[in-house]
Design a protein that fits this description.
Strand 22 and strand 23 form a beta hairpin. The protein contains 18 helices and 23 strands. The mean pLDDT is about 95. The strands form 7 sheets. A 7-stranded mixed sheet has the order 3-9-10-16-13-12-11. Strands 20-19-21-22-23 form a 5-stranded mixed sheet, sandwiched between helices. By secondary structure, it is α+β, with helices and mostly antiparallel strands. The structure holds glycyl-adenosine-5'-phosphate (GAP). The site of glycyl-adenosine-5'-phosphate has 19 residues, from strand 10, strand 13, strand 16 and helix 13.
């Protein structure tokens, strides 16, 4: 069951700001909508998430290599990919509030309300019938539920048709359903119009005859146009993959829910090129690999589910999302698509260059089919943050807010804390840090009582705190405190680094995959 906890999202947003994870962009000028800056802790967590993805996708697959393509691409790229003509959202304005909405989202939210009514009926009936309750039978026979399900089907049918070819009917549907503007409560709507999500800019000076280019709305096209470069120079044989991490830009009509929907964001995408006819097998295989990769993070297996697409885009022959139970409920975290040979063929047509693979075994050339895995780095960041955020009372009765981030991903791996600011303890603590900092991100903190220092490290998710005390000077040992249990153990300084290397290694996350 989705959490739907607005309060949790608010707490996460304020925690992320207070502890240097995420700031509103250009905040001194009151910020810029749906644009965020990652702070000193945020950038470390983000870099670690990239590493976790890159190590799994590239390092652990000998037939996958990475690239880093430019954000600007020849404008014909976006004509070929279909983004110039079809990367649109249907928008509608409320004439009274002057607020802009996505027409399909207004309708989907209305459908969600009807679904909530069905859920309520089920909960009520389950209470009434107790152990004898048969949910499947209830859903199949209850007249009110059946009536609501019929309504949902009819709305979805019209939504699908409207999105494909009839924007006037989308407006009609909004009016018929009595959907009101959430801000003004008014039902005074403009017509529905298509709105292209790509940001454009000018390349060159006007005197030179500037041309319009786009900020890429996905990283994938940088991979497609480099398919032959990589295949030839890397002597890659089908099946093989090309992976990339980079920024993407979309002029989202409604950009909200913190870093879930941004106008500038980062994607981690991989295109896997396969022999035509084998794509659905590879699609299944990548679905399984990717869900396992997510679950290995230990954020709770119940937080993930697949959402298979029933209405496929014209270029896909299978597609699904991996959804995560965010504070706003289950929402898309990653997309996995079997994109056929659509993109490579389109680039062949528009560029006039062949983008084919010569298969020596078959003694013929063909345009490979493609399985794509595409995950939003910022959404992954939000998933980790929301699943890690914990408010708890410790055994000694004290309260703490702790980020239980998987140790390998934590911004700071070890904090070294001299018990007192005197008696040679700070100097000893610096020595300990010197022995750790080649392998780990470390922090030194000598301010305030030790309990407060632990709380500060808990709040940024530091998995290990090392305390240097008087005994350390005598016998060369320190205490090692474990974030999640708050348990402490005594360990020799000599053995400390090896132990922490083991505890924070990506190996623990990757070994089982
Ligand atoms: N190349 C395929 C592609 O771009 P997509 O479903 O549009 O597919 C892939 O995007 C992923 O990128 C999504 O699953 C999501 O995690 C992330 N994403 C898309 N739009 C985003 C936005 N406005 N803000 C943050 N992440 C976004």
């Amino acid at each position: 069951m989705a959490k739907q906890d607005d309060n949790l999202l608010k707490k996460i947003i304020s925690h992320a700001k207070e502890y240097g994870f995420i700031f509103p962009s250009s905040e001194i000028y009151d910020g810029l909508a749906a644009t965020y800056d990652y702070g000193q802790n945020g950038v470390e967590l983000k870099n670690n998430l990239k590493q976790y993805w890159w190590k799994f996708m590239v390092q652990m697959h000998e037939n996958i290599v990475g690239i880093d393509a430019a954000i600007f691409m020849h404008p014909t790229t976006w004509k070929a990919s279909g983004h110039v003509d079809a990367f649109n959202d249907p928008m509608i304005d409320n004439k009274d509030s002057k607020k802009r909405y996505r027409a399909d989202v207004l309708i989907e939210e209305h459908v969600a309300k009807i679904e909530a009514k069905i859920k309520k009926e089920v909960t009520k009936a389950a209470k009434r019938f107790g152990e004898d309750f048969d949910e499947a039978q209830f859903l199949a026979t209850n007249p009110r539920v059946l009536d609501n399900q019929k309504k949902i089907e009819a709305i979805n049918e019209r939504l699908k048709k409207g999105m494909e070819s009839d924007l006037d009917d989308l407006k009609l549907l909004i009016e018929e359903l009595g959907i009101a503007c959430p801000v003004s409560g008014s039902k005074n709507w403009t017509d529905v119009r298509q709105f292209n999500l790509m940001f454009s800019t000018e390349l060159g000076s006007l005197a030179d005859g500037a041309s319009t280019i786009y900020l890429r709305p996905e990283t994938a096209q940088g991979i497609f146009v480099n398919f032959l470069n990589v295949q030839k120079t890397g002597r890659m044989k089908i099946p093989f993959g090309i992976a990339q991490i980079g920024k993407a830009f979309r002029n989202e009509i409604i950009a909200r829910q913190f870093i879930f929907r941004m106008r500038e964001f980062e994607q981690m995408e991989m295109q896997f090129f396969v022999k035509p006819g084998e794509e659905l097998e590879w699609y299944e295989s990548w679905k399984q690999k990717r869900i396992q990769w997510h679950k290995a993070l230990g954020l709770g297996e119940e937080n993930y589910r697949f959402h298979d697409h029933l209405n496929l885009a014209h270029y896909a022959n299978a597609a699904c999302d991996i959804e995560f139970d965010f504070p706003m409920g289950f929402k898309e975290l990653e997309g996995i698509h079997s994109r056929t040979d659509f993109d490579l063929k389109a680039h062949e047509e528009h560029s006039g260059k062949k983008l084919q693979f010569f298969d020596h075994q078959e003694n013929k050339s063909y345009v490979p089919y493609v399985i794509e895995t595409s995950i939003g780095l910022d959404r992954l960041f939000l998933a980790v943050l929301s699943a890690s955020y914990t408010e708890e009372t410790l055994e000694d009765g004290s309260e703490r807010t702790v980020l239980k981030i998987p140790a390998a991903l934590a911004p700071t791996k070890v904090a070294v804390l001299p018990l007192l600011k005197k008696d040679g303890l700070p100097e000893k603590a610096r020595e300990v840090i010197d022995g750790l900092k080649l392998d780990h991100t470390c922090q030194y903190d000598e301010k305030d009582a030790i309990g407060r220092r632990y709380r500060r490290q808990d709040a940024v998710g530091t998995p290990y705190c090392v305390t240097v005390d008087h005994q350390s000077l005598e016998d060369g040992t320190v205490t090692l405190r474990h974030r999640d249990t708050a348990e402490q153990e005594r360990i020799s300084i000599e053995a400390l680094n090896d132990k922490i290397v083991q505890l924070v290694s990506f190996k623990t996350l990757l070994a089982a995959q």
